[in-house]
Amino acid sequence: MDYLPMFAKLEGRPVLLVGGGEIALRKARLLLAAGAKLTLVSPELDPAFHEFGDRFTHLAEHFTPQHLAGQQLVVAATDSLEVNALVYQSADALGLFVNVVDDPQRSSFIFPSIIDRSPIMVAVSSGGKAPVLVRLLRERLESLLPRHLGGLAELSGRVRGKAKQVLVSISDRRRFWERAFASNTLGSLVEKQDWQGAERWLNEGLDKAQSEVGEVVLVGAGPGDPGLLTLKALQQIQQAEVVLYDQLVSPEILELVRRDATLVSVGKKAGAHSVPQEETNRLLVEYARAGNRVVRLKGGDPFMFGRGGEELEVLAAEGIPFSVVPGITAAAGATAYAGIPLTHRDHAQSAVFITGHCQGDGKEPDWQQLAVTNQTLVIYMGLMRSEHIQQQLVDHGRSRTTPIAIIERGTQASQRVLTGTLAELATLAAQAASPSLIVIGEVVALRQQLAWFGEQGRAQAADASSTDLKLVSLA
Hints:
Pfam families: CysG_dimeriser, NAD_binding_7, Sirohm_synth_M, TP_methylase. Its EC number is 2.1.1.107, 1.3.1.76, 4.99.1.4. By secondary structure, this protein is of the alpha/beta class. It is built from 16 helices and 20 strands. It has helices at 22-33, 81-93, 131-144, 149-166, 170-182, 184-191, 195-209, 231-239, 251-254, 277-289, 308-318, 330-337, 367-370, 386-395, 425-429, 447-450, and strands at residues 14-18, 37-41, 56-59, 73-76, 97-100, 113-117, 120-124, 215-220, 242-245, 262-265, 268-269, 272-273, 293-298, 322-325, 350-355, 375-380, 403-408, 416-421, 436-440, 468-470.
């Protein structure tokens, strides 16, 4: 670390600025905005300095080391290398912090690029090595940070004392503020600059904070690639105090969960339900009743064969507040990464998603409808019943030469795609590992042209072991 980032309180402190041109003018604005007691040394001043009125002292002189007497901070902003060098050497000899503009080698402190949302301040610096990059970062941050952020900080400062009295525990206070800042109600009041209404809402929240139950957010983690997480999903898992996750959630996504959160595996895998659904339901209610912000993290989309609806029914019956953040389902994500469009004007006018698992009563789907041509059939969790699926589709009229694909660990660096025909489905499935997605339909043939992820080294995230296996037709 070349520099220690810190924020200096300059209110009423003596600061010397050497220079009277445009660059010195910019530094004067910053220093005066921070409340510095500014002395400016320069034989001449840019006329724009008149905007400051009598808020600084001007010495119409050339700099001498005597000007440093009594100063605590020094800035050299002249166009003379000799003068700037003299300022630096003289100030450094006295142990004063000194900045020579655009000369990091002669500076014991530097001015970062500042995003001002007072009292919220964000500073970005490259130590003088990449000023253009810093400017681009500042522009990006300016667009991300709302204008009312400073007012929100002032508001929280007024309520902070009461929060300490009402909520003795640090964790309880943190939980209260996290929920408040994430609230759409507070956000709406602040955006309208209804500061009295916002303060009243916060105080009312404190009055009932100790008796409140927590909440559960059902979050879709997508098919595996952390880049496919929605922004809202990322926000939720980074705010969660407890995360209950499935085995389908990739390790890379779990790495994004906040470090102090409690992680609870309630993973389910074909043929190996490590945690019964009833136990998962019980844990959701228990953690929420304890006042926690709980995220139920599911692979793909929580409402797509993920029992999300069943879990929310339990929460609704128990009076637990909940919300849902959708995710990219495997059918959309894995097929896109495999170069297989779900629909195509020439090959498929519809797409149907089904699960390979059946309810306990063993009720079969309408195979006649599933076997029609010009339709893409996507089967979740179908490996174990692949032979049955293959037979039913053929028996109901689907051609044995229909292209099929099995996408293993879709969108992840270790993605593997096995392609063949419907006649080969059971044979291919025996070579695949869970989680895998089965895709059946004419669109699979387009993969030869459209494959992009992990192909010929074009996907940086793809592992060298990514494989595309095609069997000789058995038809």
